[in-house]
């Protein structure tokens, strides 16, 4: 009799927990950054949305593969798309330039500087180490926003490439002003105000196997009732991406292939389903 009672209590408790999980599940925004940096990167981001768990896509408007990104995004009209505002061109073998006339943001060759903040591998080649002007940043951000909104009318938010939108308080205030002016409802700085928690890998994540396990660990750690964002950069291990790197980050192709593999992995999808995790986009943050 005692055994039956224990079994019944266990069943009832499990049902209660399941009901709680269904009524107040953790929410997770999976964001793929840097669409436009390469053809293979565009392909990977598209794949992670079509076949995987990615829900938000960040586009680098001045990047060389932006026109292809615009065309590809037509294949996924429901995808949440953000403007990944940028002031840098970090790779050694492929570069991009500002869209506007902003001399304080260009290097001697007319490209963006490779870094936002000082980097020992690129001395005096960061935005902050040069005499940048807020007026030039505003002009360039406006140019990127206006081109993106013409080509991709469903823009939902703004974010900052390599942290450029949080360069200082003035720049942060500028981004807030531009978001309001262009009627773009969300931007990075607003995530904290909305109580969104940044999630990261839990454990080593150098190899593909480590990356998968540490991502699964992260999913296991998500708590009911909370909203999380996970940001990474899908890619493919192709000759094109193998040629893209900068000092201190040489394994770009293998690293970003690992992201694509995780976000399309059946084990990841199954764990999300089992835990009742709700995948969301920026448009869902106010709901």
Describe what this molecule looks like in 3D.
This is ChbG/HpnK family deacetylase. It comes from Spirosoma radiotolerans. Residues 1-23 form the signal peptide. One of its GO terms (molecular function) is hydrolase activity. Its cofactor is Mg(2+). With 287 residues, this protein is an alpha/beta fold. It has one domain (26-284): TIM Barrel. Helices cover 41% and strands 13% of the residues. It has ten helices and eight strands. Strands 1, 2, 3, 4, 5, 6, 7 and 8 form an eight-stranded parallel beta sheet that branches. Helix 2 (39-50) packs parallel to helix 3 and helix 7 runs parallel beside helix 10 (266-275). It is globular. The termini are far apart. The relative contact order is 0.18.
CATH fold-level topology: TIM Barrel
Q: Which CATH class?
A: Alpha Beta
Number of domains: 1
Mind telling me the CATH superfamily name?
Answer: Glycoside hydrolase/deacetylase
Order of helices and strands: HEHEHEHEHEHEHEHHHE
Could you say which structural class the secondary elements and strand pairing correspond to? alpha/beta
Poorly predicted sequence stretches spanning 5 or more consecutive residues: 3-21
Give the DSSP E fraction (strand runs of 2 or more residues): 5-15%
